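Quick sanity check, dTDP-glucose 4,6-dehydratase:
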Amino acid sequence: MRTYLVTGGAGFIGSNYIHYMFKKYDNEIRIINVDKLTYAGNLENLKDVENRDNYTFVKADICDKEAIRKVFAENDIDRVVHFAAESHVDRSIKNPEVFVQTNVLGTAVMLNCAKEAWELPDGTFKEGKKFLHVSTDEVYGSLPDDDNAFFYETSPYDPHSPYSASKASSDMLVKAYMDTYKFPANITNCSNNYGPYQFPEKLIPLIINNALQGKDLPVYGDGKNVRDWLYVEDHAKGIDMVQEQGKLFETYNIGGHNEKQNIQIIHIILDTLQEMLPEGDPRKELVSEKLIKYVTDRKGHDRRYAIAPDKIKADIGWYPETCFEEGIKKTIAWFFENEEWMKNVTSGDYQKYYTDMYSNK
């Protein structure tokens, strides 16, 4: 049975990845989820799998070298999928040091602990061991408003926020370990994800939640910043395919072919909510374009991101299966079916989940 160490598995993308992997492999794999449970970590995301015999949760900080060493020492880890990161740009602008600590130092600890556990006396590594570092397209900076301009794996790094700078730094560490030690790793750089379990500080769940409550829908600047949107399950599939079929030491860009302006996203969400809400539902009256409020632009706001996933398609046959119009309907339907989850997150009650169980660990 192959054993996976997933960092940040209680977060948005990490929890979706764990669900995807159990759906695909069931009892053929074992997953150990290491998460510090910061504000973005929510164990309610994993209620459906928490009692599986082949799933283990470990509350630990990836910056805690001894805690991570212990996980490797007590388990024969075959795969590391490293999601754990501070990821919200606005928060990075207010407190950059936290992002450097988690994203840079935490990645260094993960690399060192995996290297210690997997390295043989002759400097080579145990057969079949692989480390996958999950990163972002934001490390490449900003593209011009040109439909022919895209990010490729060869694009130079040009980060503009403390968040993207910290992720770029962590990418460089992984590249250094691959070059220096021939450490068995890959890097993936993905576009903006959306889907179930996404924390409501992010654009899509924020707009869905606010619109249903008749609250303002804040839009930075002119609303014409462009992002490439990737449905989170497609991302999970891509990560699995890179780990199993990707060439070692390579970087793969995972993009959605779903470029949209932020203001377009908001209009699509409003139209989809109107379509999906049944007649007589009082929330239907609240959902309106009148809620859109333009606010002062974010500092250092990148204008456009767009990934060309040509390499991952050519090397391993991955492609994004979910168009945005389909994905947003699936996302909204999930939020309709899990309104209690959203209430717990927005109220802060989710942070009380399992507090007693892990308070003394």
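Posting the structure with no commentary besides this: The mean pLDDT is 93.
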